[in-house]
Design goal:
Elements: E1 4-6, E2 31-36, E3 39-48, H1 52-71, H2 74-90, H3 92-103, H4 107-127, E4 134-137, E5 143-151, E6 154-158, H5 166-177, E7 181-185, H6 191-203, E8 211-213, H7 218-231, E9 236-240, H8 243-255, E10 261-263, E11 268-272, H9 278-290, E12 300-306, H10 310-323, H11 341-351, E13 359-361, E14 391-394, H12 401-404, E15 411-417, H13 420-428, E16 435-439, H14 443-452, E17 457-460, H15 491-494, E18 495-503
Parallel strand pairs: 1-3, 6-7, 6-9, 7-8, 9-10, 11-12, 11-16, 12-15, 14-15, 16-17
Antiparallel strand pairs: 2-3, 4-5, 5-18, 13-14
Helix pairs in contact: 1-7, 2-4, 2-6, 3-4, 3-6, 4-5, 9-10, 13-14
């Protein structure tokens, strides 16, 4: 298939590549080749990278467009989001196919990801009619108090590529329906998918300049964001990516008295209690630990298994993992290739952290799947892509790198516990706080686990992965700053509360000073006949 050319879009799609507002000559920041990780010879997109000036120009263009967009009635903005959802639905198979081709996500998972956009848009259509404020009684006569939700202004959104269309929709749909304009910087290794999603938004009626697309690498993006914050052209930052970069983004925004929306990494624990249904727990671990090749922020990180069921559970999981089908993502497989070569390189560094006290299970070997390092039952041609063996590491210790760090690859570690309090402590110890799960048949265990674990999202008898469009998504600690995406909770990220006090008394009434006083008789005591004793 022919590669598409992806350029930054400032204003409208017809202006893609227009350098009128750029001070840097196009091409100075080079070109990125977005390759199909399952077939590396397949170049999906040739991405013309831009620099900080392009990001700043896009933010300034968004600032101008946002004024008019905010004046469009919210229910009408909701209809634009509705059209976006319907266009995605009409192009569901094509968009899912592009996701599979560009990042190697299995097609069935890609279809589910696209469905999440549709669900998100369906939800936020109604928010166009539910951006409620309140009327509040005043403490003075002839005066009325109101509260309103106002758009924040321009949102700069930087997203990762492991969920190249679902996660951006979590930002785009609420930001647009609330009356904001957006500068979106997607991952360059998912450039074609980003352009396809943006095209559907533009065709749904998003006005010129309200959604701008910028292709840039990390450092130029950071410098462009800094310049836009200094310029006053960005009012809200949304970032989905690694904890390390999220920390830098948070620090930058703090200099300008802004609170970003940070959705970061995870080292998500799954506790298997002694009364768990083990086959169900194995199924949940398999999906959340190795689905998408372990390249989800909600992927299972540490299995914390009760000592009494450890051996049986690990034996069953090892067998299930060895039987799992790995291979070409266009076929029925548990997972396909690594998303991009940089993630393959990062995963190989974590493989080097396997220590002599670990017991390695799950496959005949570790590392990249090759002719000399084969995987039994591999589906397709392993020589064409970035395919890696699944790894189950038993015997983790709390001081191990593999216990403490997000590995972002097809690897899960196992440790044991004796008491629920110990399991909760082990789950919280790495310092992340995105998702957690417990498998148990005792409701008391489930609720006590929920109370003690610091994760923003908790599952009982379900996996650590999987989010519904109307629930809050996000984490704490190294996983985020407490902000939430999805559902009504994300509205707080893209609106600001504004109050109005309307005095129609014809005179100046001063709060706390001109308030009518009612003085109770504090020295009054009930008479004898109204008392309950003689």
């Amino acid at each position: 298939m022919e590669a598409t050319t992806c350029r930054s879009v400032i204003g409208s799609p017809e202006q893609a590549g227009d350098a009128a507002e750029h001070t840097t000559p196009r091409g100075e920041y080079g070109q990125y080749l977005s390759r199909n990780p399952a077939e590396l010879d397949d170049v999906v997109a040739r991405v013309e990278l831009d620099g900080p000036d392009t990001f700043l120009a896009a933010a300034r263009r968004a600032k101008r467009a946002q004024r008019e967009w905010s004046r469009v009635p919210a229910p009408v903005r909701g209809r634009v989001v509705a059209g976006f959802g319907r266009l995605v639905e009409s192009n569901k198979q094509a968009l899912a196919g592009l996701v599979t081709r560009e990042i190697g996500k299995p097609y069935t998972e890609a279809l589910g990801e696209v469905q999440e956009i549709i669900d998100t848009c369906d939800y936020f259509v109604g928010e166009g009619r539910r951006l409620y404020g309140q009327t509040v009684p005043s403490e003075m006569p002839d005066k009325q108090l109101f509260t309103f939700r106002a758009p924040v202004g321009v949102a700069a959104v930087v997203t990762a590529g492991n969920f190249p269309v679902a996660v951006p929709s979590w930002y785009l749909a609420p930001a647009l329906v609330c009356g904001n304009a957006v500068v979106w910087k997607p991952a360059e290794y998912a450039a074609a998918t980003a352009r396809a999603l943006a095209e559907l938004a533009w065709r749904a009626g998003v006005p010129e300049g309200v959604l701008n697309l910028v292709y840039a690498e990390g450092q130029p993006t950071y410098e462009g964001l800094r310049a836009a914050l200094e310029d006053g052209a960005v009012d809200k930052v949304g970032f989905t990516g690694s904890s390390d970069v999220g920390r830098d983004i948070g620090e930058l925004c703090g200099r300008y008295l802004q609170t970003p929306c940070l959705e970061l990494g995870g080292k998500n624990p799954m506790v298997v209690a002694p009364d768990a249904e083990l086959d169900l727990a194995v199924e949940g671990a398999l999906f959340s630990g190795w689905g998408t090749g372990g390249q989800r922020c909600t992927s299972l990180g540490n299995l914390i298994v009760h000592r009494d069921v450890h051996d049986e559970f690990v034996s069953r999981l090892d067998a299930a993992l060895r039987e799992a089908t790995i291979g070409n993502p266009t076929q029925e497989v548990l997972y396909g290739p690594m998303l991009d070569r940089k993630f393959a390189d990062g995963f190989e560094r974590f493989l080097e952290a396997i220590e002599p006290h670990h017991r390695v299970l799950g496959s005949e070997a570790t590392g990249r799947i090759t002719d000399s390092n084969p995987r039994k039952g591999f589906r397709g041609d392993h020589s064409t892509g970035l395919y890696y063996h699944p790894v189950l590491v038993d015997g983790l210790r709390t001081e191990d790198v593999l216990f403490q760090r997000e590995t972002f690859g097809p690897m899960v570690g196992v440790t044991t516990f004796d008491t629920l309090e110990e399991a909760i402590e082990l789950g919280n110890m790495p310092g992340y706080g995105l998702s957690a799960a417990v498998y148990t048949t005792d409701p008391g265990t489930a609720f006590r686990f929920r109370e003690g674990i610091t994760a923003g999202m908790v599952s009982a008898n379900n996996s650590t992965s999987g989010a519904e469009a109307h629930l809050p998504f996000g984490g704490n600690g190294k996983s985020g700053n407490g902000s939430r995406l999805s559902g009504m909770w994300v509205i707080d990220q893209f609106t600001r509360w504004q109050s109005l006090n309307w005095d129609f008394s014809g005179k100046l009434q001063k709060a706390q000073m001109d308030v009518g006083a009612v003085e109770p008789q504090f020295d009054y005591r009930l008479p004898t006949e109204l008392r309950g004793h003689r």
